[in-house]
Amino acid sequence: MLVDPEKTTHLGKPVGKDSSTKTWEGDQWKTGGGCTWGWFSYDPKLDLMYYGSGNPSTWNPKQRPGDNKWSMTIWARNPDTGVAKWVYQMTPHDEWDYDGINEMILTDQKVGGKDTPLLTHFDRNGFGYTLNRATGELLVAEKFDPVVNWASKVDMDKGSKTYGRPVVAEAYSPERTGEDETTAGICPGAIGAKNQQPAAFSPETRLFYVPTNHICMSYEPFHVTYTTGVPFVGATVGLQPPPGETRTGAFLAWDGVAGKIRWSNPEPFSVWSGALATAGGVVFYGTLEGYLKAVDAATGRELYRFKTPSGVVGNVMTYRHRGRQYVAVLSGVGGWAGIGLAAGLTDPADGAGAVGGYAALSDYTALGGQLTVFALPER
């Protein structure tokens, strides 16, 4: 049965007319964000498209009580009629800017011995989600970075009234701390445990390969008034490594059915490139210091590295030309993590804290833009 998203809970069950607008105070939903700006996936067999919606505004949660539907939501929608078949809100009443637009990866795998159409999503909130993409049933919701602390878990008890909702930690709730007060040590930071850098899936290993941010934040919400054409933020954010650590990144292999990390390679900075998994059992990714790396898909063991002139935020790609295979990567530091270096910003709070969080990056790489291409040996 197709479900009208105006009549659904966070798990897509009918509850009544205008349920989503009632989760906003007054007309705040009109200026509350929740837009989609990321990636779309499509299943031709089910004739459904999948995507995520972004964060609510303002970033000050005190000003927008309620679940703020349908921000932070995974959508399954019929592309011909526009009707949503199911929705799942990952972060109701987002207090941390955990934008929900990251890619939706579609695979077919066995769950409980049955072939099942799956959707796997690595959210900025630090949880890796696996759902039955035909029905919207939530199968897995586990942390893919162990330092995630804004929520202790997602309630997976189907008999519970809070089934599918995160169990928020009061100590890391900016709303509970209050306006003009700073909540420190929230993990992950607003930059997310994974941002727009895409993960990859290998049909050979049945694992996902995920570039991640291993980073936390301080968060100070303040009152802000909506004015058309003016930034509507309402929070000051600072980014820091997790307590007792200096690194801010990792590249890991994730079992989406079990909801577990199979291996993880620490990196000094966030891994901001896309991952490339190959049929030859090799996975490629780039680092913010500028390295292109090749690792063993099964174990994570590093096989090769090459230093490019600038930090890698582009996606590693492969192609064939005249019978020979090539691997290429565009390096040129930028994006959220590289904004301080790229734009010459110096205030640590700029870039939602990214300038301060990645201040040391200038010691490891420089600005630039170059396409580096490698030819694989001919057989």
TrEMBL record:
<keyword id="KW-0560">Oxidoreductase</keyword>
<feature type="domain" description="Pyrrolo-quinoline quinone repeat">
    <location>
        <begin position="273"/>
        <end position="327"/>
    </location>
</feature>
<dbReference type="InterPro" id="IPR018391">
    <property type="entry name" value="PQQ_b-propeller_rpt"/>
</dbReference>
<dbReference type="InterPro" id="IPR002372">
    <property type="entry name" value="PQQ_rpt_dom"/>
</dbReference>
<dbReference type="InterPro" id="IPR011047">
    <property type="entry name" value="Quinoprotein_ADH-like_sf"/>
</dbReference>
<dbReference type="Pfam" id="PF01011">
    <property type="entry name" value="PQQ"/>
</dbReference>
<keyword id="KW-0634">PQQ</keyword>
<feature type="region of interest" description="Disordered">
    <location>
        <begin position="1"/>
        <end position="26"/>
    </location>
</feature>
<protein>
    <submittedName>
        <fullName>Methanol dehydrogenase [cytochrome c] subunit 1</fullName>
    </submittedName>
</protein>
<comment type="similarity">
    <text>Belongs to the bacterial PQQ dehydrogenase family.</text>
</comment>
<dbReference type="InterPro" id="IPR001479">
    <property type="entry name" value="Quinoprotein_DH_CS"/>
</dbReference>
<feature type="domain" description="Pyrrolo-quinoline quinone repeat">
    <location>
        <begin position="14"/>
        <end position="177"/>
    </location>
</feature>
